[in-house]
Every structure is written in C-alpha cells, then in structure tokens.
Amino acid sequence: MRGPVRTTETAAIEGTYVSPVGRRTLRVFGIPFLRGRYFAGVCLLVVVVVASVIGPLVVGHSPDAQDLTARLLPPISGEHLLGTDALGRDLLARILAGGRLSLFVGFTGAALAATIGVLVGLIAGFREGRLGTIAMGIVDAQLAFPFILLAIVFVATLGASLPMVIVVLALSSWVSFARPIHAMALSIKHRDYVLAARSIGATDATILRRHLLPHVLPTAVVIATIQVAHIVLFESALSFLGMGVPVDIPTWGAMLSDSRRYLQIAPWISIFPGVALVTTVFGMSLVGDWMREALDPRREQHE
Fold first, then answer.
1. Mean pLDDT calculated for residue range 96-111
2. Between 247 and 66, where is the model more confident?
3. CB of 98 within 8 A of CB of 276?
4. Contact call for residues 232 and 280 (beta carbons, < 8 A)
5. Are 291 and 222 spatial neighbours (Cβ–Cβ below 8 Å)?
6. C-alpha–C-alpha distance, residues 82 and 204, integer Å
7. What is the pLDDT of residue 297?
8. HSE value, Cβ hemisphere, 13 Å, CA-based, for 17
9. Which of 182, 130, 292 is nearest to 227 (CA)?
C-alpha cells in the first residue's frame, strides 16, 4: 500500500524539501549537449584551459626571457613555434602565461561578483522595504554607467595590481546578478512552501538558505558563465589601455597593445594573442548558451 503523498508544503514543514530547480540542476549533465555549437564551445574551452594550465610546463621557454638577437622571428622559427616579439621573447610562452592569468581573473572575478550579487539580490528581494529600495537604487545607478568606464575609474582611483583588478571587475559586474536574483526572490518568497516554513517558526536565514537559494542558484550559474567571458574581455581591454595588471605580467591585452607598432612588419605578434582572446571568449559564450538552455525551466514542461 502506497504511503502518503509528500506535497511541497509537507516537505517544507518537515525540513526536507528539495526544490524542483535543485533536482533540475543535478540532471544538467545528463542533457545531450555534445552537438552543434555547444560541442564546439566545450571543445574550445577545454583546449584553452588545458593549454593554459599545462602548456607553460612543457613549452621550455620563459615568458619573460629576452633575446634581442632573436627579436621578431616569424612563426616556426627554430625553437619558437609562434615566433618572437620585439624583445625576443617566445610568443607561445607568453600567450599561454596570459591565458592562465585571464582564466584566473575571469573565474575569480565572476565568483566574487556572483557572491556579492546573489547575497544582495536575495536579501533585498526577501526583506523588501527600505533596504530593497536602497539596494536596487544602487544597482540602477551602477547600470547607468558603461562597464568599462566604471572599471577604468576604479582602477585609476585605487591603483593597478592583480588583486585590485579582480576586485574592480567584480564590483563592476555584481549588478548583473543582483537584478534577476532580486526579481526571483520577490516571486519565490510568496510561495506556499515558504509561507509554510515561516508558519512553523523558521528563521529568515533558514528560509533564505533552504528555500530561496536553491531556486536562484541555476540562474546565478548561467549568469556567472557568461560573466567569465565578459570579465576576460574587459581585463584585456584594461591591459590594452595600460590600466590592468602590472606591465611585468604577460597579458593578452598588453601583448596586443605592444604589437601595434609592428603590425606591418610582424603581424603575428598581434594575430596570435587576438586569436587566443577571441577563442576563449567565444567558447565561454557558447558554454553559457548551453547552460542557459540546459537550466531553462520551460524545458521540463516539454519533456
């Protein structure tokens, strides 16, 4: 004989509720994504990550080692697969080192921005009132400023260093999380299982952790995936303008900036860093599109 049916409200009261969104998240990796542009995006991202992490260990050249007797060598020149730059530094070693930095900045900055944005969006949506009004007012004010301009202002004011660049990019992008999370929190807080949990004396922290956070996490993951690509791109833009990480650290943006004067005589020193940047951003954007489709709640309605 079958036992009693466990409704959402019953499970919430018993404290064992697992949201439908949480179950959908666990099934994401069972969705057949190895097709078309999603397959291409995953492959591109895997290649970039593996090359950036393992590449510097097997290249055999230091990204900072200078050899003025071997400056501006074309690709496939002896031991230099992609040639050398104006100071005789191995271009492949510098691109791989720049890739490690870009991925580190992208993932770290997106994680920090997601933490800030999700917390602000959840609390502002759950509490509403004056706190929510102030928080969303700050979000609206920051959204009125162009992303890159805001980052330049922060870097120019606070100084340029690797930790500062990560913090600046995170502070410039957390609003991308706060606005949609706030809207979701406003909707979820009035659902029956949240009201049931509140009726039995659950604290605000418990409701936020057990009943709101599992619903907004899939959306936060999708936004974070896309924000990684944006942060990588804007870090390169800051480095191109000379306002990113210190000049002694190889970055794709700084390499593109240094190569401008040699475009006609040595175009490869700008082509290869540009290809690496475009490949990373394109691959990350495709993965973000897959995540958006995989976590779309409307998918379950059609399955």
1. 93
2. 66
3. yes
4. yes
5. yes
6. 57
7. 55
8. 26
9. 292
Could you tell me if 174 and 224 are in contact, meaning their C-beta atoms sit under 8 angstroms apart? no
- What is the model's pLDDT at position 34? 52
Q: CATH number of 104-295: 3.90.1150.100, 3.30.565.10, 1.10.468.10, 1.10.3720.10?
A: 1.10.3720.10
pLDDT of residue 275: 93
Tokens of 83: 């040639």
**Cα(58)–Cα(273) distance, rounded to whole angstroms?**
19
How many CA atoms lie less than 13 Å away from 241 in the CB half-sphere?
A: 15
**Helix (DSSP H) and strand (DSSP E) numbers for the chain:** 14, 0
Terminus-to-terminus CA distance in the chain, angstroms? 29
3-state secondary structure 236-296: HHHHHCCCCCCCCCCCHHHHHHHCHHHCCCCCHHHHHHHHHHHHHHHHHHHHHHHHHHHCC
Structure tokens at 171: 């502070």
CA pair distance 292, 119, nearest whole angstrom: 21
| Six-digit token string for 20 | 């439908």
Residue 31 has pLDDT above 70, yes or no: no
Residue at 149: amino acid letter: L
Q: What is the pTM of this model?
A: 0.81
Distance of CA 233 to the CA centre of its chain: 10
The answer to whether 206 and 197 have CB atoms below 8 angstroms apart is yes
Q: Letter for the amino acid at 281?
A: V
> What is the average pLDDT value for the chain, to the nearest integer?
81
pLDDT in tens, 183-212: 899 888 888 888 888 888 888 788 888 888
Output the CA–CA distances (angstroms, integers) from residue 3 to 7, 12, 17, 137, 138, in the order listed. Answer: 12, 18, 17, 50, 50
